[in-house]
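Here's what a typical entry looks like (Anoctamin):
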Amino acid sequence: MSTSSQASLEVLKGSSFCRWYKDYREPPWSPDAYAFSKHYWCVLAARLAFVILFQNLVMFLSLVVAWIIPDVPKTIVEQLKREKKLLVDVFLQEEKEKFQLIQSLFSKEATHPPSQASFIPGRYSTLPRA
């Protein structure tokens, strides 16, 4: 060992407190010995601010990524729109056929008395029998 390291060990053996680790506390000779110093509270506030800012940044970035990348691809969205349009067209065509059938039945009833011959079985069998 060198003489300087031996001298520092001698000083450490004679001291009653550690000067190497600050721990952000008041020194033992202060009126409020070993209490948290103002520096400790500033560091704690900075840590809390960092955690809050980092959390909000991550949340904001996740919302941006979710907005940029869609859940459903565009091709599927377009296909669903086409299918919906075709389904609406089929329903409209069926309703138009039903309406024309009802009109034809009423026009036949006006010219002929009701009979079993005017009933058309098959696709529209839910209509009441005349």
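Residues 25 and 37 are 5 Å apart (CA to CA).

More examples are in the samples folder.
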